[in-house]
């Protein structure tokens, strides 16, 4: 009889114990890691041992080595880099994904993974009110989701121009020009680099980073021809949304493909209170977002949504004798992402949506936005503090007078570890950037965070 269950039992029990201990420590522990990467590395074995080690002992050793270098990203007082926490059902589902060990590329080979992901995709389109029948690909994150959406756009434009991209490649191909706001996220530039499309044409934006439709029209008229337009749902610093209806109309009038980078901000579309800020977003051709950020599922879960499935599948699908392709119109999971082999990352999305339900998703998104407003209002009452953005979603950009003082306050906050708010620069100024992304952040966390900032500001007066 197989010893498979016994081989895993002790190690999984130890992992469960360590995970539970970690989660129990998060509300009260310092948010910042106690050790840096070099300090953690100094505790690791320099050479791989010759002898095997018991699996449960490996888990114990790993937990002890890692603990000093762990950032408490799941803390309600963590506001760095637009990183969400993890909902309980999504975390547990992610454990099952690892245990089941399904390669979620083929419907025929892993039918449960495919069916659950297809269910999650349908729920997402309904929640976000995007065109039903769109393809949804589960990617590694928002960067690859942008890559997938823009790849579909590149494919569509090449097909429209009569250029066989698969056979001929890009050499000698019609030039595709990409237009994006000056305050786009760098992930868009990275995706364009991956796709061989070169630098985009930067389009002027307003004081909150929103693209100006008239400036977009002028830029496109100066460089006619096949074009991609990248819009933004959620500016990295202000949280602002590009004027979707107007900008999409400009682009579509010039037969461009419109892609929306909505890494965290696309989720505003689920809320009746916030949806108006994204009016017309459903008229775009593709969208990218990250379920880890606002939906709070574990890492490794971007979403590429494309309204023209045939363009996405022509970009990524392959056909071989050993891959048993689906006979339905749904396509295989590998038709929609730049991977053949991948974990079933859509299952935690299904679990998160099933846990929350429609009303729960709306309430969570509204709560994140409300917490951002509460932080901004509380911080605005601290002498010398400036709130630099209109707080329209989950981002708050703060300055403390001079760049030098802002930098010192930010460094003190990170060193103290009561909260984690990352520094940045925006519109020529050093800022403290706050991203409210964690489902567990509550009024107590908000109050403690405001107090921590007040203390740091008082300890770092203007020079």
Give a description of the structure.
The structure is a single chain. The chain is of the alpha/beta class and 463 residues long. The chain folds into 3 domains: 65 residues; 261 residues, Type I PLP-dependent aspartate aminotransferase-like (Major domain) (Aspartate Aminotransferase, domain 2), CATH 3.40.640.10; 100 residues, Aspartate Aminotransferase, domain 1 (Alpha-Beta Complex), CATH 3.90.1150.170. It contains 14 helices and 11 strands. Strands 1-7-6-5-4-2-3 form a 7-stranded mixed sheet, with helices on both faces. A 4-stranded antiparallel sheet has the order 8-9-11-10. β2, α8 and β3 form a beta-alpha-beta unit. α6 crosses α11, α9 packs parallel to α10 and α13 crosses α14. The mean pLDDT is 96. This is Aminotransferase class V-fold PLP-dependent enzyme. It comes from Paenarthrobacter aromaticivorans.
Q: Which structural class fits the helix and strand makeup?
A: alpha/beta
Radius of gyration: 23 Å
Largest sheet report: 7 strands, mixed
Q: What's the CATH class of the largest domain, please? A: Alpha Beta
